[in-house]
Amino acid sequence: MGWLRLTINSDASHIEDIGTMLEQFGAVSLSYTPVTGEPLFDEVGRGGEFWQETAVAALLGEDVDLDVLMACIRNRVGSEHIHGHHIAPLQDADWLERHKAGHGPLVYGGRLCVCPGWREPPQDMACVIRLDPGLAFGSGSHDTTRLCLEWLAGRDLTGKRVIDYGCGSGILGLAALAMGAERVQAVDIDAQALAATRANAARNALSGRISTGQPDSLEGGADILVANILLNPLLQLALRFAGLVAPGGDLVLSGLLAHQTGECLAAYRPWFNMQDPRFSNEWAMLCGDRNSRPD
C-alpha cells in the first residue's frame, strides 16, 4: 500500500478542527511543526498548545480522495484559514511501521515505564503504563511531563490520594496508580481530555481507582496534587490548591518556563513550603509541602 503525506498550514485556533477532519478521513498519524517559532508552555497537540502558525502533517492511505478531503476542511474552517497545503507521495516504505519504530518505552526513575502498545517494556520493570505516542493530550515525552513523572517515580505512593489537575491523557494520575496510589481524582476543563483519560484507564485496568470530572467536582484532603498546566492558571489557583492539599501533603507544579518560577513561587509560599525549582532545558517544575499555617 502506498501512502500520502498531506501538510496543511493554518493558525492555532483552527488546527484542532483540521486534525479532527484528517482523522475522520483515516489519518494513521498526525504531527505538528512550527511555522512561527514562539515557545510553547504545554505539550503540542489537542488539549495542549499550537504555534500561532502551525503545520499539521497527516499520513493517509493513497486511496483517500484528497479533493473531497480538502473541500471538507475548507468548509469546516473556511478557506481563508488554509494558508497553504502540500501533498507528497511516500512510496516503497512502510511509514506506519517506521513511525512505530521511532517510539520506544520511556523509563522514569528506574521503576516506571510508559510503553506504546506495539512494544514490550524492559524486563523486570515494576510499573508499566500502556500509552501510545502521538496522542493529543500527552504521552510523557515533553519536558514538563517528564519532570512530573520523575518526581512521582521517586516517591512511595502506596495508599496516597492524588489529584491530577489538568489531566490531559491521564498519564500522571495513571502513573501514580501504577505505583501504588489508592485513589486519583483526574480533572480537566476539556471533555475530550476526560474521555482520553477514561479510555487510557480502562486500557491499563485502572478504571476502578480513578474518577474524572470538571475541576469544581474535586474533594479536598489530597496527599499529592500535581498540575501540569500554565503559569496564569497556576497563579490563579494557589488558594484553591491550598484548600485541596492536606497538611503535609505534596504539591507539584509544571508547565512553567524557567524565568517564570519566581512569580509562581511567590504565589504559593503563603501556604506551601516550596523547594528550589527543578529544570529540564528551558522548562521548570516546582514542588513543596502544605504547611499548617491557617489560610
What key attributes describe this structure?
Rossmann fold, alpha/beta, Alpha-Beta Plaits, eight-stranded mixed β-sheet, 2 domains, four-stranded antiparallel β-sheet, 9 helices, 295 residues, 29% helix
Describe this structure in words.
The chain is of the alpha/beta class and 295 residues long. The protein has 2 domains: 3-100, 2-Layer Sandwich (Alpha-Beta Plaits), CATH 3.30.70.120; 153-290, 3-Layer(aba) Sandwich (Rossmann fold). The protein contains 9 helices and 15 strands. Strands 8, 9, 10, 11, 12, 13, 14 and 15 form an 8-stranded mixed β-sheet that branches. Strands 2-3-1-4 form a 4-stranded antiparallel β-sheet, with helices on both faces. Helix 5 links the parallel strand 8 and strand 9 (183-187). The model has no long low-confidence stretch (mean pLDDT 87).
For the termini, the CA-CA separation is 63 Å
- Helix tally equals 9
Report the CATH topology name of the largest domain. Answer: Rossmann fold
**What coarse outline follows from CA principal-axis ratios?**
globular
CATH level-4 homologous superfamily of the largest domain? Vaccinia Virus protein VP39
* Proportion of residues in β-strands: 25-35%
Main pleated-sheet profile:
8 strands, mixed
Q: What is the chain-wise order of helices and strands?
A: EHEEHEHEEEHEHEHEEHHEHEEE
Percentage of residues in helical conformation? 25-40%
Overall average pLDDT = 87
DSSP strand count: 15
What structural class should be given to the helix and strand makeup? alpha/beta
- Please write the CATH class name of the largest domain: Alpha Beta
**What is the gyration radius calculated from CA atoms?**
20 Å
Spans of at least 5 consecutive residues whose pLDDT stays below 50 are: none
Number of domains: 2
